[in-house]
Amino acid sequence: MALTGRALLILGLGVAVFGAGASLYGARTGRREWVECGRRSVYALAGLMTLAFVILEAAFLRSDFTFNVVAGHSSTTTPTFYKLTAPWSSQEGSLLLWVWLLSLWSSLVLFLTRGKVREIVPYATAILLGFGTFFLSLTVFYANPFATTSNPPAEGAGLDPLLLHPSMMIHPPMLYSGYTLLTIPFAFAVGALITGRLGSEWIAVVRRFALAAWLFLGIGILLGARWSYTELGWGGYWAWDPVENAALMPWLCITAFIHSAMIQEKRGMLKVWNASLVLGSATLAIIGTFLVRSGVLDSIHAFGASTLGVPFVLLIAAMVCGSIGLVVWRRPQLRSESQLDSLLSREAVFLFQNLVLVAMVFVVFWVTFFPLISEAVTGTKVSVGPPAFRPFIVPLALVLVLLSGIGPIIAWRRVTVANLRRNFTIPVLVGLVTLVVLIVAGGGTSSRPLALIMFGLGGFVIATVVQEIWRGVSARRAMSRDPVPVALVQLIRRNRRRYGGYIVHAGLAVLLIGVAASSSFQHSSDVSLAPGQHAVVNGYTIRYVRPLASASAQKISFGAVLDVSKGGKHVTTLTTTRGFYPAQDPTLGIIGRFFNGSADSNVGLRAGITKDIWTVINPDLGPLQGLISKGDRLFAADESQIMSRASKVSTQQTQQSLNALFAERDAAISGLVARFKSHPWSVNFLLIVSPLVTWIWLGALIIAFGGLIALWPVPAFARRRAVARAGAGRRTSPAVAARETA
Amino acid sequence: MDPSRKRAIRLVVALTAALLLASALVYTSFAAGRDEVTASQLLQKAKPGKSYILAGTVLAGSVHHHGTTLVFSVRDPKQKVAVPVRYTGIVPDPFAEGRGVLVTVREQGSQWIGEQNSLTTKCPSKYQAASSSY
Amino acid sequence: MLQFLIVLAILAVVVIVVTGPLRSVSRPSATADDSTEIADLEAAREAKYREIRDAELDHSTGKLSDEDFEAVDRTLRAEAVEILHALDRARRA
After folding, report:
1. Distance CA A27, CA A120 (A)
2. Which among B7, B14, B34 has CB closest to A383?
3. Are strands B100-108 and B82-87 parallel, antiparallel or unpaired?
4. Cβ within 8 Å of residue A619, ≥6 positions away
5. Partner-chain contact A201 C43, CB within 8 Å
6. Could you tell me which chain C residue has the CA closest to the CA of A742?
7. Kind of pairing between the strands at B51-58 and B34-37
8. Kind and range of the H or E run holding A225
9. If you ran DSSP here, which 8-state letter would residue A522 be given?
10. Nearest to B47 by CA among B127, B107, B2, B118
């Protein structure tokens, strides 16, 4: 089926090129049937890519090692769940995923905008198909997922053990959905700029997809953080790694746009800014896609050769130059319709928030690319780690949280003293009380003032959200006399954007409180313990109870059971293991290669609302080394003996002797591994007690919930009813019509 | 104050703030950054006793455990050169052949000793072409 | 051979689907300008309705004082009526 798969890609490429051309032709000549062709090309592309992806997944499921990607990233022993996720752990498969998701989301967009923004849609279609063409070209000419070999190996290389985590099923599809969804506002913005149709319609259409992109990308980023925390053995959730930053930058940008779009809708301001944000977000998404797969940040010199660097750089350059050109060309139409009346107004707060977010993007961008910049400027590559980000990101984050509390309750156009008094008194009080209580509870002084400020601000924000919801429910009940839960649901249902947004702000506050607490008040300890010994971390006594060890053909693991207690009372039992996977390299020794291959950790984690207790074992295999080397020598000698006799006996006998040897080898390995239990020695443990980590995941859930509410479409029948009524009777006042349009 | 003057003032203030942020950023990154060296640069200009951050990828076939010491070679991205390192301390999970690593090393006699717990790996860019062997 | 036939079949389906509109051309395309102006006005009307509701909600939750609300409400409704008139004109044209 590999040939069919390849043919589908080539066919898809043809359809994409044709569709783009047809859309443009239809746009220039005004012939709608050609535009319709373009739309159908997108649908056809979605169908073709779905088929191609199914063929690839099928190959993985049946472990067809004639497919190079299957041989390189899967094996017969890979669990079925992970066989399904394996395609996108490869360069080729991930590119196919990108095009597939792009075609699906584009189809959805074009379906939903069937009757709208008629002038813009053809150009948007052409741009989206243009992206499709780019990525399909990569799969057709550079990185073919359906490449085959006539000499398939008996067993595949298997999936990198670090990727054997449930998050791997959803993290890449979420991230890619976020990236591909960002191309949609980009395409519509370009279309709007080209046609000059920069009125209310394009932003109403684009806003929804921007919100969807924001949601998916955000979930993808948080899943990655969770993977890092629970799977990698370093105990953290964010390392400011280029790969992480690559996804964060477009997310910050599109967050800014979602807010400033509201200003454009209400006051007709910030049009150039909004266009730039939309164009910038997609460009950053492509830069992110490029960063992750080109290796450019390892060295500027690792370019070209066998990477996809050059095509991506060309695409990014085209996007940047095209965007700047279009915005400059259309500057007259992008003039603001009104001014900023006062710096103390909601418009101003939104503007400040935007500036803070863009500043964050700049900081992340600069520090991420700094090694390249410094190499280009000074010739030496400079290494900057997480400490370079914190002096900038922390203050900016504090300001951001503050603004997220002020924004919802400050008045439009101009604030008044009465307005301030009515809306700010309680939240500010709550924030201050939170701060004071925490300072007092901490003993009057604190070595972590910034964290405390974040807690105070978090309290402020949560108070504003509660106040807003409370007042909304009261207002509703004054009219409808509904019980509180009903009023609450009705309130949110009829004002989804507003209250969805408020819930997101509350979730953000919870999340950042968790970040501040876990990064400022963490206690960690790196100790060496023998069974029976214990260490004390932040009041918790952690005792190494007994060692664990197991061996199989795929994996050897050494671990420990730890008992955690506080003040004499048992708190929890933790289990942590470190697994070693056999290396394929024979020079490491017949026995040795089982102990010297890649390793991964299983962390012992006890998550709680107030604290997480986290541990990982780092066993040093030194005490076994002598026996391993001896085993290597003995088995090597035996093996060469068998091989030297091979010419004198039948192949069947040689095979039997080898099988017996391998059985002995396995027994020897089991025996060695068992020594860890019978003659245990001191091993290293990393012990961490971290407060409020769970708040990060809780905050993320709240954010996702709020985002979904904001995104949820208004029931179509309600909208149609209102429009019909407004159209039928000229007498219908705007007020009544407005009330109907939920 | 008429509106256009107000706007001009606001613009100037905003630009100044941006400029300050940019300058702070540029300054801290150049000041706080530490020079990375590649294997070839290390072999050329290293002075004994001084520590350097060695950056590169782990050479395939070079990884061995000797007791508590991990021995591996870091290869140069451009040239066919690699530096053998003897390292003790925490080994990050993603550490493997072909992965990008940073380790602080010092020359001791004829050997390169890795500073304890200074080994970090780059988040594996899974899509990089395997460039760990010559 | 089988694969070749499958691909050929898929190709045929794709060509038929994609070129469909070209083969059934009979309707004259509506003048683009008018429909987009109407669409724009409709979008502006929706946005204005939302603003009016938002202002009402702001008022009932205490973010707009009574006088402020009346002033804002009056302005917004006047703007909405303007849009409705413009929409009327565009539709009749």
Report:
1. 9
2. B34
3. unpaired
4. A558, A578, A676, A683, A684
5. yes
6. C50
7. parallel
8. helix A200-231
9. -
10. B107
Q: Which residue of C lies nearest to A16 if distances are taken between CA atoms?
A: C18
Do residue C63 and residue A4 have CB atoms under 8 angstroms apart? no
Quick check: A275 and A387 in contact, CB under 8 A?
no
**Ramachandran quadrant class, A143 (left: phi over 0; alpha: psi -120 to 50; beta: rest):** beta
CA A555 to chain centre: 29
Q: In angstroms, what separates the C-alpha of B110 from chain A's closest C-alpha?
A: 24
Tokens of A742: 């939920």
Distance (Å, whole) CA A632 – CA C14: 61
Which residues of chain A lie closer than 8 angstroms to B96, CB-CB? 598
Residues B53 and B35 sit within 8 Å (Cβ to Cβ): yes
Residue entry with tokens 């350097």: B52
Tell me, what DSSP letter sits at residue A141?
A: I
| Chain B residues near residue A297 by CB distance under 8 angstroms | 122
Pairing of strands B111-114, B82-87: parallel
Q: How far is CA A398 from CA A191, A394, A401, A457, in A?
A: 37, 6, 5, 8
C-alpha to C-alpha distances, A516 to A275, A404, A436, A558, A602, nearest whole angstrom: 34, 17, 17, 34, 26
Q: Which amino acid is at A213?
A: A
pLDDT digits (tens, 9 = 90+) for A374-408: 877 777 777 777 888 888 999 999 999 999 999 98
3-state class (DSSP) for residue A692: coil
Integer Cα distance of A719 and A723 in angstroms = 6
pLDDT digits (tens, 9 = 90+) for A283-335: 999 998 888 777 666 544 444 344 677 888 899 999 999 999 999 998 888 88
User: CA–CA separation, A463 vs A493, rounded Å?
Assistant: 21
CB contacts of A381 in chain B (<8 Å) are: 35-36, 38, 55
Chains touching C by CB (3 or more pairs below 8 Å): A
Chain centroid to CA A152: how far? Answer: 35
- pTM (two decimals): 0.88
Q: Which two tokens stand for residue A138?
A: 């990569």
Q: How confident is the model at residue A38 (pLDDT cuts 50, 70, 90)?
A: very high
| A91–B67 C-beta distance less than 8 A | no
Q: Are A504 and A496 in contact (CB under 8 A)?
A: no
DSSP secondary structure string for all residues of C26-92 = -SPPPPHHHHHHHHHHHHHHHHHHHHHHHHHHHHHTTSS-HHHHHHHHHHHHHHHHHHHHHHHHHHH
Q: How far apart are CA A608 and CA C62, in angstroms?
A: 39
Residues of C in contact with A15 (CB under 8 A): 14, 18
Q: What does the alpha-carbon distance between residue A194 and residue A329 come to, in Å, rounded to a whole number?
A: 9
Separation of alpha carbons B127 and A391, rounded Å = 32
For residue B115, count other CB atoms closer than 10 A to its CB.
15
Kindly provide the b/e burial profile for residues A709-719, where b requires at least 16 CB atoms within 10 angstroms of the residue's own CB: bbbeeeeeeee
- Residues 6 or more apart whose CB falls under 8 angstroms from that of A320 comprise A283
Which residue among B3, B35, B129 sits closest to A382, beta carbon to beta carbon? B35
Tokens of A43: 């649908």
- DSSP letter at A140 equals I
Q: Residue holding tokens 């038929």? A: C16
State mean pLDDT over C37-48. Answer: 81
Mean pLDDT, residues A575-596 taken together? 83
Amino acid code (one letter) for C85? H
User: Which residues are A132's β-sheet partners?
Assistant: none
**Which residue in the block uniquely carries the two structure tokens 């290869």?**
B75
CB within 8 Å: A30 and C29: yes
The count of CB pairs under 8 A between chains A and C is 136
pLDDT in tens, B80-121: 888 888 888 777 777 877 777 888 888 887 788 888 778 887
Q: Facing residues of A15 across strands? A: none
- Helix, strand, or coil (residue A420): helix
Contact A621 B92 (CB under 8 A): no
